[in-house]
Records
---
Amino acid sequence: MKKFYNILLSIALVALAVVGVQAQSVTFYQPLGSNLTIDTVANTGTTYVSTTSRLKNDGHYTNTVIQVNVTKISGTVGGTISLQGSVDGTNWKALNTAETQTALATVTATDATNSYHWRLNGSPFQFYRVSWTGTGTMSASFGAVLYRSK
């Protein structure tokens, strides 16, 4: 009988060890790509793409990643692309990224089709938008994809 309990205890410990390793090494991403709009920026205009509905608050997220995909249409693509957040979908604030907490999350668009991304600690806002102010004579479309990891 003692041998049976030792075997049962050994199996339980191995099972707990396997579950513990899996819980630490697996990251779940929630794609929300269909939740962001796509638009075109022309010349020196400012255009926004944003989440179209409040993001679901279903637990603690460790990171939020926003990727912006730019497609050159014509001219010399340039300008400033920035990330903004809002708690109500009306009042927007320029964000700081995890890597640059003292600087606003902006990138300078290059004259090509390109992708840019930002990483935030947690998921601090329920609405996100990307602002792009173009330069010179240009036309480019852009969209964004948002992922949150638990």
---
Amino acid sequence: MDFAQNQIRLVQSKTGKTIAVPLRAELGAFLMKLRRKAGAVKPSAPIWPDEAKRYEQFDAGVFSNEFYEDVLLPAGLVPRRTHQAKKKGEATNGRRKDFAWHVKKSSHVNL
């Protein structure tokens, strides 16, 4: 997070290329408020320390499943998964899902 420039900078893991994503002023202000609330002093300190601990403990899989169930499914972007299909990463019809949200641990961002 670069609050001075009001953007998120990501580094692509395959190419090493840096991507700057501008933030709307309202989102930047909201994230700054969360940062202050968390007591984040260093620029690299996470805004959500508890979630950062969960990420370190469980890796990205738990967040991927939560994103699928809490965001993608209610938005109608993906089919409901059965327990077995969810475990295999497949849709309930047995085919691979058409939509994927993937985060690699090596390219995480402290938000």
---
Amino acid sequence: MKKGDITFVVLEKLIDSAQGMGELFEVFFADYQTSYRKLRGLARKKRDRFTAEELSSARHNFSALMSRLQKDGLVKKLKGTDAKQFLATQEGVRKFKVLQKRRKRQFPESDYDIIQGKEFIIITFDIPESERGKRDWLRSALKYMEFKMVQKSVWIGKTKLPEDFLKDLHEFSLVEYIEIFKATRQGSLRFL
């Protein structure tokens, strides 16, 4: 997890209600998934596989994170409780909203299903320099799907294009820059 992702997850948990250190540590310790319940289960499973030294290091990093968030005015300790409990401040809520917007602009992970087909698929694109992030994401996705680069903007492979990938192309307004061809005759492709 990146630093901004960890801050996002901690603030997300604190915005709804005050949380104790133990609950927040589980969120910090587990990879961010879809629900808090899953996070707790993952944290317990992971905790069983880690040494005392690794857990101690993670606790130290977590304490440093919480200190930094307090110093930055994003979280505050609740007074009058026995356990250390934290709550997001107004500045923390504002930061959470900024991080949330940033996350929405991020490109999805290239974790598409890879199903090999029988025909070659050729993908060409001409994405403007102003859309460099989208171009880099597309190259990464094609590489993940086992396509081979013929030229920087010409890729070839036998992987069937997943529906999720095609939806992502539409979502990021890339369709107008991309051409997708199926090679029905082998020609010189038989040497690849």
---
Amino acid sequence: MQLKPKKGYNKTMKTILVDAANTFTVNGEIHIELHQLLEMYSNKKIIVTNANDEQLIAFGLINLPYELFTLKHNPDKVNPEYFILLLEKFNLKNDEVVYFEHNLEAVKSAVSLGIHTYHYDVEKRDLEALRKFLDSSL
């Protein structure tokens, strides 16, 4: 299903940054309902993680439907430098991405750089609230 652009639509389509472990994957498996929600958007998606090589396997972060970005804990997402390097790698600006993340410290890190960010509560897994965030942010 393709969503129609809203009023004031920016021709530069924003990239969705997706938290990896405990959000996109749960117990080493892709969160199917979350993946289905993301597929409603034609925007580019990048899965972001701190994971090193061993953790990529343990968290089920291999053979994913979207590109994966990791700095293997050097630095972690709680350090704004992580997002600076991510934006540089993909030639993006902070206003060209939206991000959702379960770790509050990583949320604060991204917000400190002006990245529009949503705290995704992994206890609630409220996909409707996430959909509303994405709809209003893209």
